[in-house]
Amino acid sequence: RRWRGISRFQRRLVLLLLALALFVFWFALPRVAVMERAAAGQDLQMVDPPGFEAGPAKPEERADPTSASPPPELPKPPRPPALPDAPGVAGPAAGVAASRRSPLPAGSLGRLSETSPSRRQLAVLEAMQHSWKAYELYAWGKDEVHPLSKSSAVWMGAGLTLIDSLDTLMIMGMSQQVAKAREWVATQLNFDVDKPHTNVFETTIRLLGGLLSAYHLSNDSIYLDRALQLGERLLPAFSSPSGLPYSDINLHTGQASNPVWTVESSTSEVSSVQLELRELSRLTGRPEFADAADRISRVLHSADKKDGLVPIYVNSVTGRLHNGGTVSLGARGDSYYEYLIKQFVQAGKSRSFEYLRDDWLAAMDGVAKHLVRESQPHRFKFVGELLGGTTFSPKMDHLVCFLPGALAYGFLHGMPREHLRLAEQLMRTCYITYTTTATGLAPEITHFNTDAASVADTYVKPLDRHNIQRPETVESLFYMWRVTGDRKYQDWGWAIFQAFEKYTKVQPAGYVSISDVTNARNPGKRTKCESFWFAETLKYFFLLFSEDNDLLPLDKWLFNTEAHPLPIWPRQP
Ligand code: DMJ
Q: Which residues are the active-site ones (predicted)?
């Protein structure tokens, strides 16, 4: 009666408004729902970013990076000047002085990015300042800071956190902190450390890698001088009968050894030093570092593998892989795979490095065949392990979450499109390992249920509940954002960043590891802050939230396994 009582004009107006509301509801609601589900980690049907085919591509297909959907249109700042025209590894010796040229003009600190920082980047910058404050207050010049106990710890005895952080400070434009740290490097840093068991891998990726990147980003020769001093002290570690490095060295005496209890080394440790050694050779014209790297890569290339997969232990004296050993892309296996594709890219995809690309392709086929499974009930793809080389275990270390990023980076450099598809699926799974805990932070290890009757996809064993500020998921989010231009990866990173803010920040300074990600009431703050929090996690957050794709563009730079950027060389024959 009321409807009939109003005028025709009023009726039309009401109908029009109803139609408008329906229209808005129809188009906006699904988007909101998808975003909410994604943020909650419940979006089971992955939405393909426009431009990417779903489903497997032919194995021989090589991606044309230009065919992928381009990252969003962003203001284009001037690119960094061309890379230094330093001699190639096999080129004439040039000496440190002659090759002291970096891709950035002197004094470019704070201007690495020409776009204004985003609100999220500013939050990361504040986190870095808060973290650095703890290091300055409690651990200046020491290896690690313990913000809770307001103390420090010795590991290599060489200012580990300070050196590991240099490039992050530079990228974030923290010029005053860089100046003070540079002063310490110039006047205090001393690699003449008399400790019998300094780990060769950690020293190479964190200290040597950090110094090389600091040099490239600052054009300051002090960092290259120090890198060369360290490289010379590390050299005896590469003189084993097989050519694979000993795990430990005394930097003072040059005595290299494996730990007393074993002759076996971690496969990832012996196989993840070549990027740094070759770059040191290129910059200094000293071939012995690159020669050592070549020997390592060739020994592992010739070793007996199972569909491209390697066990997690290797005998560094004989060069033989541990037969029947566990296969994993997590602890002790991870960066073996990462460095296959990155060595090929570093060398400008030169023909003489194609054998490493082939090893990467074989390994990724092996991963798909033996290690990738789906959880139940939601069919999340994950990467398990082969115990004893044969028995599948649905266990996935947080460390494995480097893989989506490496696959995406490989795709950008010409690897098959199906690698990107797998990267997208694994990226989602890595994110799920965060969203399914009470704190929103991932545990060290996640197990997956594969039984059809399962009610939850994941479970975390009591001893695996800790989070030590690892970077791998944020690292992969950064690559996925750069390669696909899909903003959901930034949003996922932001959710993770906020969880770190809430559960790991301490006052008056610093961020720490926690013991139990499943307990939001009492996550159990630990005292220690890892150096890779500064070197990797915060750096990747900062880059993930950047709108400037020309800030360390991925066709010109690669990141070593400790997130230290190194230039990609021009292609050589
Ligand atoms: C880092 O030192 C490196 O990323 C290494 O390759 C693996 N472990 C840590 C971070 O989790």
A: 202, 334, 444, 472
Q: How far is the CA of 562 from the centre of ligand 1 (A)?
A: 6
Domains of the chain: 127-567 (1.50.10.10)
Nearest-10 Cα torsion for 474, 476, 480, 483: 120
Q: Which residues line ligand 1 (CB under 6 A)?
A: 335, 399, 470-471, 532, 536, 561-562
pLDDT of res. 231: 98
Which residue puts its alpha carbon closest to atom 10 of ligand 1? 470
Which atom of ligand 1 is least distant from the CA of 398? 11
Q: For 325, list phi and psi in degrees, rounded to 5.
A: -80, 160
Q: Are 373 and 448 in contact (CB under 8 A)?
A: yes
Could you tell me if residue 101 is left (phi over 0), alpha (psi between -120 and 50 degrees) or otherwise beta?
beta
Model pLDDT, residue 261: 79
Dihedrals phi, psi of 178, to nearest 5 degrees: -65, -45
Most confidently modeled range among 70-84, 311-325, 372-386 = 372-386
508-563 pLDDT per residue, tens: 999 999 999 999 999 999 999 999 999 999 999 999 999 999 999 999 999 999 99
Does 561 count as an annotated binding residue? yes
- 310-327 confidence digits (pLDDT tens): 999 999 999 999 989 999
E strand spans, 154-311 = 198-199, 248-249, 256-257, 264-266
The closest of 109, 213, 124, 131 to 542, measured between CA atoms, is: 124
pLDDT tens digits for 21-30?
655 444 433 3
Is pLDDT above 60 for 66?
A: no
Mutate to test the pocket of ligand 1, among 160, 401, 532, 538 (most ligand atoms within 8 A of CB): 532
Higher pLDDT, 149 or 572: 149
Atom index in ligand 1 nearest the CA of residue 531 equals 2
Mutational test site, ligand 1, from 205, 479, 530, 539, max ligand atoms within 8 Å of CB: 205
Strand partners, 559: 565
Catalytic center residues: 202, 334, 444, 472
The pTM score is 0.83
Atom number of ligand 1 nearest to Cα 399: 11
DSSP state of 371: I
pLDDT at 61 (0 to 100): 37
What pLDDT band is residue 114 in, cutting at 50, 70 and 90? confident
